[in-house]
Amino acid sequence: MGFSHLATLLLLSLRACSTLAQVQVEEVEDDDAPTSPNLAVQISTSFPSSEIFGIKLVNGHPTQSLLSIQNDEPDPVTVVFIGGSLWASDLRGKSPQIVKNLTTARFNVAIPAGAKESISYSFTTELHPQELKLNLAVVVQDKKGIAFTLQAFNETVSVVEPDTSIFDPQIIFLYLVLLIIFGGTCYFIYSTWISTLFPQKRRGGKGGERAKKSSGGLKNVDPSDQVSVLGADGPAVTTSSKAYDESWIPQHHINKPETRRVKNSGPKPKAKVELK
């Protein structure tokens, strides 16, 4: 029996298991793959990391199920496939409808007669938070190669979203973007409306104040000696009759060194004597 045939068998079995709600063995309408309710194979399913507060399927995180298969047959059996599906259970009297087919995993695990084997089956969901019915089925072959579909689990589970943390990089990036947008909006409001309500301060004072600052506040300016110079924000005042302020000019430019005359050290010319 080929791989595609067994996969089709498992999907048909899952649909039959959910529709008829049988707990042990479901019959598949396939002449080449009969089933037997008297197959002495017992299956129990547990969820090690999801049964603390009920079985919850966390979106984006793999859900691990542990299938314990007990072979009470006199001959060994082989676990070929394990698969499942999620069904909408509350439809107000309507027949259940499939929501999602889970991944079908191939194992080919042989279980000797009277032995027990544990097989781990994991699947992942990406659905809206809701309550659904989880149906898991196992395809088993006997020593003659005849396939049997056994139901492993058929109960209601909850699909939930993962818990968020403030240290999640996506959350940190979202907070950073929102903070930048909020800061830019506040700056725009302040510079557009709020800043116009307050008077702006001038950088420099009037002419008399600038003259005092330029002189270092050490000279007393006589108003009679002040000479006004046209400026941008008022007349500039100097402390002398000159039309400029000497305090801005370095001293070595104002006090020029005097030129010294060098005496001639040579012999003096003799005076000419005129003859009468």
Q: What does this entry look like structurally?
A:
With 276 residues, the chain is α+β, with helices and mostly antiparallel strands. Helices cover 20% and strands 30% of the residues. The chain has helices spanning 3-20, 169-194, 207-214, 251-254, and strands at residues 41-46, 56-58, 63-71, 77-88, 97-101, 105-111, 116-123, 130-141, 147-160, 227-229, 236-238. The strands form 3 sheets. Strands 2, 4, 5, 6, 8 and 9 form a 6-stranded mixed sheet that branches. A 3-stranded antiparallel sheet has the order 1-3-7, with no helix packed on it. A two-stranded antiparallel ribbon has the order 10-11. It starts with a helix and ends in a 22-residue tail after the last helix. The relative contact order is 0.13. Residues 18-36 and 230-239 have low confidence and may be disordered.
Layout of strands and helices, then pairs:
Layout (H helix, E strand, L loop, with lengths): L2 H18 L20 E6 L9 E3 L4 E9 L5 E12 L8 E5 L3 E7 L4 E8 L6 E12 L5 E14 L8 H26 L12 H8 L12 E3 L6 E3 L12 H4 L22
Parallel strand pairs: 2-9
Antiparallel strand pairs: 1-3, 3-7, 4-5, 4-6, 4-8, 8-9, 10-11
